[in-house]
Amino acid sequence: MGAAEALLFAKEGAKVVIGDVLDDAGRQTEAAINDLGGECLFIHLDVSSEESWTAAIAETVSRFGKLDILVNNAGVLSLDSIEDITVDEWDRVMDINAKGVFLGTKTAIPEMRKAGGGSIVNISSISGIAGQSYVSAVYNASKGAVRIFTKSTAIQYAAEGIRANSIHPGPIDTPMTSFRKGDAQAVAQSLARIPLGRAGVPDDIAYGVLYLASDESSFVTGSELVIDGGFLAQ
Predict the structure, then answer these.
(1) What is the full DSSP assignment across the chain?
(2) What pLDDT, on a 0 to 100 scale, did the predictor assign at position 192?
């Protein structure tokens, strides 16, 4: 989803910085955007590390002069039952999915203040709104944390022109969910839960992120945008 978001933002004229621990994949996206005439910089980023975030934000501002949009997109999945979740697994998921959003927000806000405002878009999940039996409770907990952290951020920084909103994707066809494809019954069950009858694709989320990052959503903050094919409407 992050690659799709970066490509769309670049097409709309944004100068894009992308961060990941997957250096090869990140540089491929960087090259794809630059080859199309966009401006993209890849930075190695461990979202669970405050030092890594500090360095990434500093490099971003050094390269482009300011920072006015942050998309916290990094995430990992877990499928263990509550009794099977180890402390290490709990910490792994919470470090990336929840602490990563906190650290990104914490380090970006001072630069957004200097820029006169900004927009923060946090990728949560429908799992941050409702529980599901097929994902781990730690995943639900991490995405629920993102949801309420976003609202707190919005309230605390609205007076400074800094907006914060969360996006809650339903099942999206990405490498993170590719494990389902080998189980035809699981795929059928998943699709049966979606009124529109299909899984989402990364661009479905990217257009929502673009809206919340743009001036077209200037009166939107502390909100949650559900993009799930009708999953939660049932």
Answers:
(1) -HHHHHHHHHHTT-EEEEEES-HHHHHHHHHHHHHTT-EEEEEE--TT-HHHHHHHHHHHHHHHS---EEEE---------GGG--HHHHHHHHIIIIIHHHHHHHHHHHHHHHHT-EEEEEE--GGGTS--TTS-HHHHHHHHHHHHHHHHHHHHHGGGTEEEEEEEE-SB-SGGGGGGGG-HHHHHHHHHT-TTSS-B-HHHHHHHHHHHHSGGGTT--S-EEEESTTGGG-
(2) 87
